[in-house]
Specification:
This is Calpain catalytic domain-containing protein. One of its GO terms (molecular function) is calcium-dependent cysteine-type endopeptidase activity. InterPro entries: PalB/RIM13, Papain-like_cys_pep_sf, Peptidase_C2_calpain_cat. By secondary structure, this protein is α+β, with helices and mostly antiparallel strands. It has a single domain, classed as Cysteine proteinases (Cathepsin B, Chain A, Alpha-Beta Complex). 34% of the residues lie in helices and 21% in strands. It is built from 6 helices and 4 strands. Strands 1-2-3-4 form a 4-stranded antiparallel sheet. The longest helix has 13 residues. The radius of gyration is 15 Å and the shape is globular.
Length: 122
């Protein structure tokens, strides 16, 4: 069967696997974006049918975040926790925990970006 096990379809279980695996350094993970229209791709900054490497996973005050790497570096995430999203990055404790420098991220795109887990699941 090509249907994934139910446990892998549950976002909470997926988060547990991602968070635990990266914390213990025992897994290499990627996520893929499904089919997007050109309009959706331009709006979100995500490439249609493209795979991103998960480099870090962090949780702070209920925000579940993943650092992704786009090897193309040609599109840039535009949603919550994007470099331009000043409101989501307002908490200094969050920026310190994730070693995030918003000014550098806005000015210099290396294909790295933070995305919240809820946006990723959508």
């Amino acid at each position: 069967s090509t249907t994934p096990p139910k446990s892998l379809c549950d976002p909470e279980r997926v988060w547990e696997i991602l968070h635990s695996g990266t914390k213990h350094g025992d897994c290499l993970l990627t996520v893929a974006c499904g089919e997007l229209s050109e309009e959706e791709s331009n709006r979100t900054g995500l490439a249609s049918r493209h795979t991103y490497a998960i480099l870090e996973v962090g949780e702070f005050k209920g925000n579940r975040l993943l650092m992704l790497k786009n090897p193309w570096s040609s599109l840039r995430w535009r949603g919550r926790f994007s470099p331009e999203d000043e409101e989501s990055w307002a908490d200094e404790g969050l920026r310190q925990m994730l070693h995030y420098d918003q000014l550098t991220s806005v000015d210099y795109d290396r294909g790295l970006f933070w995305i919240d887990f809820e946006s990723l699941v959508r």
